[in-house]
Design goal:
Strand content: 15-25%
Number of strands: 26
Oligomer: single chain
Strand order of the largest sheet: 17-16-14-12-11-10-25-26
Number of helices: 19
């Protein structure tokens, strides 16, 4: 590690920028000055010794100064637009992104009325398709707002904008320059795969080639995420390395020179980066690959950790806010783990007699790469997502060969299909890729259904402790002290990790609230400690039947309690249908007409303005305006009529029941798509996170004593 000077400086900068995210820029400036003074003092004291401390301190001071300068020059004026309204002339930078019924338009402002600001990137988030296409020039009145979407900071996007539905934008077709060829190539890949392959198999292939996972169904993506392999749906170092080395292998056969093949591969890497949209993770992987191939071109072996460090240093210098992108951090640290940890793991087991068998050796090699990447990214995953995937290593080992084959066969298949003459060969290759893709989805579905496929770490302090234990294990690989000290350090870290992971099994699982949406109302299923309680019912028979089928799809045939909070005339019809398909032990009601229904022997409990403890962690309070659910210290309000909602964390209601000025953190709305889209845009302006549900769209809320997490997707 003595020669890894670039990497040491780069990761000192990276670590400083990560910490700087949590500090104000005034504090960053003060700390930067103090660190610089400390660097000068340490350099004077240690001038006759070879020490890393002065380099690290100077690098940290440089990073803090760079962050402050970048913020004042590029970010401060943009964020000052928060809450202001202007007539904006802007053009789209890329294709619209369709996710979770939202459409994201990334734009660049050419001119603003009543403002000197221009030339900055921003984002328009809409729940309705505005009809904009890539490179369109748009002139319309916009209101800017800051939603804190820091994951887009890595793309130099620091503010969002809202377009009123009453305004008609003036749209002109623009020219995207050279980048239009990348857009055309991306569309060609999407259209070619979609022409020959339907369903999730084709959508997964598209995501692995160009990073567009919008076509993957919600159920398939839930399985992919639950099994810990969601990284394969985003183009990163894995995909780029497979394609770049594949291209080099082909070129080497034609050019008969490793040097010329390496040089000829570099333009293709630029093309692959453009095809994936120059995301932060792709930029990191692309820069690293280019440095590596440049080293091969001049007959010198590039030092991998220095190549990675240089790529990180370049990207952080261009945009210090790249560290806000979780995908960027995950791809950096997973690559670092493969470079540093995997060789040591391989060395430790190389002496085992079983490694004489080639198949065993190859399987171990793949597993070591996966384990190394998982270990290095474990602290980030725990802090960011709040859970770990114990089976992710096994799942990645099982699908590793299938992923490589899918990318290779699909890439060649698309190229051959586009030639026209050899399209029959391309179809055959795409068929093989589809088989591999189907295998990946099958493995993901099986692994995600295992009960301990995801272990949730409850509480912020528990997450931090678990992350520290993970970091201690990782640091073990960098300690060059005596063996006894290393063994003690590793044993302590492993003991901490084991205690914390096992405590996750002992700790109560999160309270789960499943929200079933429809155009005519919603129902909320509360699951806690084996108890299943349904709050609400649809006011139409066919919707009630759909909700009953969804409940059965969760493996629930009997409900402990059904709460019918509304006194609507239509409620009896929906509740009657619901009770025909789902049995229950008790039913709470406020409308005497419900008392006339056939309840199949269920115990009937009338209520009005009461408070009931449903489980140890779930309480229900009934008022004239609606129902207040308190689950794991999170307050959730379900109104039964339009009224000003109390101060709560989450509100669940039909669209017309939710006021745009409600004092909540997020709102889950049900209703027609056009109505929810309009209301969602208004809520965003008020700083409320909206979730719009329509027929067949559901949301799941997982609550712990410290936080809640909403998964918004079509669960079936």
């Amino acid at each position: 590690m003595k020669s890894a000077q670039v990497a040491k400086i780069a990761f000192a900068v990276l670590g400083t920028l990560i910490i700087a995210q949590y500090l104000s820029f005034e504090i960053c400036a003060v700390v930067g000055v103090l660190v610089f003074i400390g660097a000068v003092i340490s350099a004077v004291i240690l001038r006759k010794r070879e020490s890393l401390l002065p380099k690290v301190l100077f690098s940290s001071a440089l990073a803090l100064g760079l962050m402050c300068c970048f913020y004042n020059l590029n970010v401060k004026d943009v964020k000052a637009l928060d809450g202001s309204t202007h007539i904006v002339e802007a053009h789209l930078l890329d294709e619209p992104e369709y996710t979770d019924e939202r459409v994201i338009y990334k734009m660049k402002a050419d001119k603003l009325s009543d403002s000197d600001s221009s030339g900055f990137k921003f984002m328009v988030v809409s729940y309705a398709d505005l009809g904009f296409r890539e490179f369109d020039k748009v002139t319309v009145e916009m209101t800017f707002y800051d939603t804190g979407l820091e994951d887009f900071y890595g793309e130099n996007i620091y503010i969002c904008a809202y377009i009123s539905n009453e305004d008609t934008p003036i749209v002109e077709r623009g020219d995207g320059g050279l980048y239009r060829y990348a857009i055309a190539a991306r569309q060609a890949v999407r259209n070619t795969v979609s022409r020959y392959l339907n369903g999730d198999e084709g959508a997964l292939i598209i995501s692995m080639l160009i990073g567009d996972r919008s076509g993957i169904s919600d159920s398939a993506y839930s399985a992919i995420k639950g099994s810990g392999i969601s990284h394969i749906t985003v183009v990163s170092g894995l995909h780029l390395s497979i394609l770049s080395w594949l291209i080099m292998s082909v070129l080497r056969r034609f050019l008969r020179s490793r040097r010329m093949a390496a040089l000829a591969t570099i333009p293709f890497i630029f093309g692959l980066m453009a095809l994936a949209g120059f995301t932060p993770s792709v930029l990191r992987a692309g820069i690293t690959s280019i440095i590596t191939f440049c080293g091969n071109a001049i007959y010198k072996k590039a030092y991998s950790v220095n190549s990675l460090g240089l790529a990180v240093l370049l990207q952080c210098t261009v945009n210090p806010f790249s560290v806000c992108s979780v995908s960027f951090l995950l791809t950096v640290f997973s690559t670092l783990g493969i470079i540093l940890i995997e060789p040591k793991l391989r060395k430790w087991v190389s002496k085992l007699s079983i490694c004489r068998f080639r198949l065993v050796r190859d399987l171990l090699l793949v597993s070591f790469m996966t384990i190394s990447a998982q270990l290095m990214t474990l602290p980030i995953a725990i802090i960011t997502f709040g859970y770990v995937n114990p089976l992710a290593v096994l799942t990645n080992v099982i699908i590793s060969t299938a992923v490589t084959l899918t990318v290779c066969f699909a890439a060649f298949g698309v190229l051959l299909c586009l030639t026209g003459v050899l399209s029959f060969m391309g179809e055959a290759l795409l068929f093989v890729a589809a088989i591999c893709s189907k295998f990946i989805l099958l493995v993901a579905e099986i692994m995600s259904k295992i009960s301990f496929s995801q272990i949730y770490i409850s509480g912020r302090s528990m997450m931090l402790l678990c992350a520290l234990a993970s970091a201690a294990i990782i640091l073990f690989f960098f300690v060059n002290s005596r063996r006894r000290i290393k063994i003690i350090a590793l044993s302590t870290a492993l003991a901490m990790e084991l205690i914390l992971i096992l405590s996750s099994f002992v700790l109560p699982s999160p309270v789960s609230l499943r929200v079933y949406g429809s155009e005519s109302g919603s129902a909320v299923l509360i699951c806690d400690g084996g108890r299943n309680i349904l709050v609400g019912s649809a006011d139409a028979s066919h919707i009630a039947k759909m909700i009953a089928n969804d409940i059965k799809a969760d493996g629930i045939d009997n409900l402990d309690l059904i709460v019918l909070p509304s006194d609507c005339d239509k409620l009896s019809k929906g509740a009657t249908t619901l009770l025909k398909h789902v049995s229950t032990n008790k039913i709470m009601y406020s409308d005497e007409r419900i008392d006339l229904m056939a309840l199949d022997g269920a115990k009937r409990i009338g209520y009005a303005n009461c408070e009931v403890e449903l489980t140890d962690r779930v309480a229900l309070s009934v008022t004239d305006d609606g129902i207040m659910i308190t689950a794991a210290k999170t307050r959730i309000f379900v109104p039964t009529e339009y009224a000003s909602s109390p101060k709560v964390d989450i509100i669940i209601a039909p669209t017309e029941f939710i006021a745009t000025t409600c004092d909540v953190k997020c709102a889950i709305m049900v209703g027609k798509e056009a109505e929810t889209a309009h209301k969602s845009n208004l809520l965003i302006m008020g700083g409320v996170q909206p979730y719009a549900l329509s027929n067949g769209k559901n949301a799941e809320i997982k609550l712990t004593n410290s936080d809640y997490c909403i998964e918004y997707e079509n669960l079936y």
